[in-house]
Each structure stands twice: as C-alpha cells, then as structure tokens.
Amino acid sequence: MKEMIYMDSEFINSFISQVYDGLPVNLESGSKESNGEHATDQSGEKSTTSTQGSLLFLKGKYNYSTDENNQHSVMQTQETQEIISKKMHDNALNDFEEYLVTEKKLKTTIEDAKNGEYVKLTIPFRFIDYKFLRSLYSKKILDSMLIFTNHDTNESLEFLENEAKNASKDQKNEIKHQIKHLRKELEETNKGAEHGFNLMNAMFDVVVDALPTNYYLKEENILIPLKEKYFREDIRMLSFKYNFDNQANLITIIGKVTGKFERLIDEKYFRDQDLNQYPQALNETFKEFVKLVDFISNEDYIISPVALYFDDDLI
User: Fold this and answer.
1) One domain for residues 205 and 227
2) Top-confidence residue, 216 or 59
3) What is the pTM of this model?
C-alpha cells in the first residue's frame, strides 16, 4: 500500500489537463443519473456514471461512490472534496507513471538519467528542515542550554563560596584560587558556545535565505528540494519519525532530474566583474556552510519531485 506523503498537485493537474483535455469541475448527483446514463464534462465529451453516483473525473475514469441518498450533501463538505482530490491525484500519478513506462521515459537509476528525464528511485533518505534547524539557534534556547551545561560548575562555585565563609586564611586563598579557575572555565565555555552560535546564525542569515526552500530530502549524491504546500503530512512529524540514518527506511521518489549542483547562485549576474565579487563571496560562504552541515556537494544530482511515498507491500 502506498503512503503518499508528498504530491506536486499542480504538476499532476497539468498532466490531467493535457492528457484528458481539461480538469474535472462538475459534480454529478447519483439520484439523477443511473448506470449507463451519460453526462457531459467540461471538455465536451461524455462520461458514464455508476449506479451509486460518481464524479465526472477524467471521462468517468476516476469515480467516487457513496450512498445515492446523501451523495450530493456529502460532496459539499471540504473534507470530502479533499479526499476526492487526493484520490484523483493518486490515480493520475499511476497513469503518469504508466505513461512514462510505456514510452520508455522512466529511468530506475540516477546514473542512467540525463537532464530533463524522469526517474523512479527507492532509496534510503533523511529529511532536512532548515526552518526547524534555524529555530534551534535562538538566544532563548542558547541561554537555556548554557544553564544545563553550566549546572555542575555553578553548583561547585556555590559550594566553594559557602566553604570560604568558615575557612581559615590559608584555606580561603586556596578556595579563591579554585573559584577563579572555575569562573575562567565557565567564561571560556560560554564564549565558545556563543561564538559557535553566532557563526551558525551568520551562516543561516547568508545561506538559508538564498536557498529556494527550507525543506529537502537527502541521499548520498542526490538532493531533492521540497515545497511545503505539497506535503500531505506535517513536516515536523515526518522529520521526527524518519530523520535518522536508518538504511531500512526506504522512500520512493518519482521526479525529473534537472542537473548537477555546481554553485548556489550564478556568478555572472553583472557585466562588471567587480560587482560579481559579491555573488562569488556568497558562494564561498556557502562552501563553508556545507563543510559544517551535510547538505550538498558539487556534482550531486538535483531532482524536481513529482511524488514521494512509502510502499509497505500490504496491498
């Protein structure tokens, strides 16, 4: 059984429109049509409905049935419309894949695919959510982390300060020396944490805003940019469930290979070479960023996804 988690509905709508001469827009009441009767869809062609009633989807190919008596009222609910839309898109995806296979235009290995060709891959993966990652580098979270990180040191300082109150002169000098040493360690720890925090924030400010999206699916030499609006499940939930390097977790991707990664932005925006130094500097910053974050490398394949799903073979 396919568990669809991502679908480029605009692409699928375009496929439906081009292959079936238009998108379905009409709803048909089962009480008005019986088996064998016909109605006209927006393309001007005839569609056959079932005895239980159906939607005029793609000349009658994608039917949605319910009780004859309550079909019309049920179809008006947003929830039902969403179910119908998903069913139509899922069926259309199957047709799209069948079309690619029939036309011998679907590759099953990334190395065999040229730019502009479609691939179907079942691969291990991990999600990258830069919106979430960036949210971790807030001042509030840093301060909270330092409280926990410095907890033992602060307890030791408090203990030594109390000991110093009743200590002899020689003991006080020794305790003061220990306190000074611990405070220096604490200061260095905080400075190191703040330096790393500020460095990552600067990287995020420069790089993440220049990226086309906050969400990606990554596997070795493949990077797949993802649009938030096409997810069928909450992104944070997906990341929580699957954001581990578990080779047993496999996902199927159908998409188009658009090329290999070379640089973040074009370095030839301007005719004046002096002005091009700015995009060049941004690309250098991006190189430093990917040294810290396992994101992308030169020559990685970029795939524009049509659909992502899990297939558990239950059906």
Assistant:
1) no
2) 216
3) 0.73
